[in-house]
UniProtKB/TrEMBL annotation:
Keywords from the named record: Kelch repeat, Repeat
Start and end residues of each stretch annotated as Disordered: 1-35
Domain of life: Eukaryota
Gene3D superfamilies per UniProt: Galactose oxidase/kelch, beta-propeller
Start-end of Low complexity biased regions: 14-34
Provenance organism: Adineta steineri
SUPFAM superfamilies linked: Kelch motif
Protein name in UniProt: Uncharacterized protein
Family annotation (Pfam families): Kelch_1, Kelch_KLHDC2_KLHL20_DRC7
Keyword NADP tagged: no
Amino acid sequence: RLQQHPQRQRRQQLRQQPQLRQQHPQYQLQQQHQQQHRIFYHQHNNFVWATTGDMNSPRRYHTSTTLTNGNILVTGGNNGIGYLISAEVYDSSTRLWTLTGNMNTARGFHTASILTNGSVLVAGGYSGSSYLNTAEIYNPTTGLWTLTSNMSAARDYHTQVTLANGNILIAGGYNSGSGILNSTEIYISSTGLWTTTGKLNTARRYHTVSILTNGNVLVAGGDNGGSTLNSAEVYNLSTGLWTYIGNMSTAREYDIQVTLSNGNILVAGGYNSRSGYLSSAEVCNSSTGLWTTTGSMNFIRNHHSASLLVNGTVLVAGGYDGIDYLTSAEVYDPSTGLWTTTGDIYIERDYHTASTLTTGQVLLVGGQNGDSVLSSTELYG
C-alpha cells in the first residue's frame, strides 16, 4: 500500500543507495542551502520552537483537531507496526498528553472535523486491511466514542470540512473497489445521517480544501490516478453542485492550502508527477476564481504542514524534498508575497499535523522521518 505512489519508490531507492542520493541534481544545492539555514538560525532556535510533551504513542497518518476548550485531540494513525485505535488529548496548559477513549475502529488516512456542539466527527480512512465507510463521534466531556451512520462510500485520502450550516462535507478519495472517487456526501449533524450531493467534475485524491468567505468550498489539485491535477472546483452550498474555476498554473498534490485573512486561498509546494517536488506557490482570488503565482518557498517540500498565524502570515514546517526529511520552516507574508525562513524544528518530519492553540502558538504533532515514526511534538511561538 505504501509503495503505490512513484515518489515512495524513488524515496526508497535514494535511502538504500547513497551514491544515487549524492548524484541527485538537487542534492548539492539543498545541502548547501540547508546548512546555511541551520547555521544562521541555530542560536535562535529555542526562541522560535520549543519541544513539548511526547504523545503516548508514535503516530503518522493521524488527525489533530482543536477542541472548544483549546486542547488538541489526536486520533488514530499508524505507529510503524499497525493502524491505531487509540486517541489522546494534549492539555495546552500543562503541555502533557493523556490517553482518552479508543475509537471503535483503528484507522489512518481518515479525516476529522469539529461539530457545532463541540464534539468531533471522524470518517473513513484505512484500517490496514480495508478501506472504511464508518464514522464515529467523540464526546470531549465523557471521552467516549459513538458510532454514527456509515458513509455511502468507503474512502481514504479524501477531504472533510465543516460547513457554515454546521454540516460536514466530504469529497473525493480512494478505495480499492471503485478507485479514485468523484463522489461527495454531507453529514447532517442534526440527524446523524449522510446524504450524497453533487459529484466532483474530476475524481481526485491527495487534493486540498478550503472554505470560502461566502460559505462555498474550494478543492484544488490532487491526483486522478494517471496524473497530477491543476484543476480546481467550487461547491455551491445552495445548489449542491460543483463548478470549475480557473486552473492553477502548476499541477500539484500533497501540497498545502490555507484561507488567508483577506479570504483569498494560498497553495504551496507539493508534488508533480512530471516535474517532481515543488517550491512554487500561488494564490486564488476568491472573488474572481483566478490564480496568480506568488513568491516561491525557499525549500521544495511536500507532506508539510501549514498554519495561519494570528498576524495573518502563514507558517509552513517540515515535509520531504525527494532526498531528505526537513527541519526547515518558513513564513509567508501575504502583503509582500514573499517567504522568510524561520527557526528550524528540532526533529525532521513529514506526515505530521499542525494545530493552532488559543494562545496563537502552533503545535506540530508526530509524523515520520525515514523508518522512524515519531511521538514527539513541538510548539512554535
